[in-house]
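Example S7 (structure tokens).
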């Protein structure tokens, strides 16, 4: 049961408001939660194709595993391309001098995965999600979009959103949203990658 008092909600169904909020259409979304589960990371990855998502979490939780969702920086793409080119050149060299059908088949088998990866990177819809992990334990739970914000007790985990009795407050006042955004930006700048 979800109990409402003004813009405050309490109960096991609070997640419905938060899930709708996370999937709302907008250019960006800012999240502060000490715990971020893989369930919500996957939801947000899908959403990140449409909106920029910034997450601040702590280092003593599942959010640490979120590091695997960081996107390759431009140097990562350059290294990947360089590796593909080196393998291709070496393969061509051996294929040219050893006219064995077996070696040519090996060349094809070696270069095709690199070509697939390169094409996938070239034509993939870039996800725009950045995660920063604070060394200091952050206990805040704040979710900010362009038109509204949510604060309260709910961590961004399946249990926190779907099983626990949680309290959330929906904020629609522009001034308060601007204050929360400034607070987020201040934290974001002070957390080193």
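Recovered sequence:
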């Amino acid at each position: 049961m979800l109990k409402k008092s003004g813009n405050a909600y309490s109960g096991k169904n609070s997640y419905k408001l938060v899930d709708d909020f996370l999937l709302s259409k907008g250019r960006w979304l800012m999240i502060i939660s000490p715990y971020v589960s893989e369930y919500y990371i996957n939801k947000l990855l899908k959403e990140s194709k449409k909106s920029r998502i910034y997450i601040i979490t702590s280092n003593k939780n599942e959010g640490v595993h979120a590091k695997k969702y960081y996107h390759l920086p431009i140097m990562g793409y350059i290294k990947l391309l360089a590796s593909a080119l080196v393998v291709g050149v070496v393969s061509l060299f051996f294929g040219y001098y050893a006219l064995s059908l077996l070696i040519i088949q090996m060349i094809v088998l070696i270069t095709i995965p690199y070509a697939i990866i390169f094409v996938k990177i070239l034509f993939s819809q870039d996800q725009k999600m950045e995660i920063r992990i604070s060394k200091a334990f952050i206990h805040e739970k704040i979710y900010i979009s362009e038109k509204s914000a949510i604060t309260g007790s709910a961590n961004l985990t399946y249990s926190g959103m779907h099983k626990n009795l949680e309290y959330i407050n929906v904020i629609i006042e522009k001034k308060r949203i601007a204050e929360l955004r400034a607070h987020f930006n201040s934290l974001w700048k002070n957390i080193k990658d």
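Notes on this example. The CA atoms of residues 94 and 100 lie 10 Å apart.
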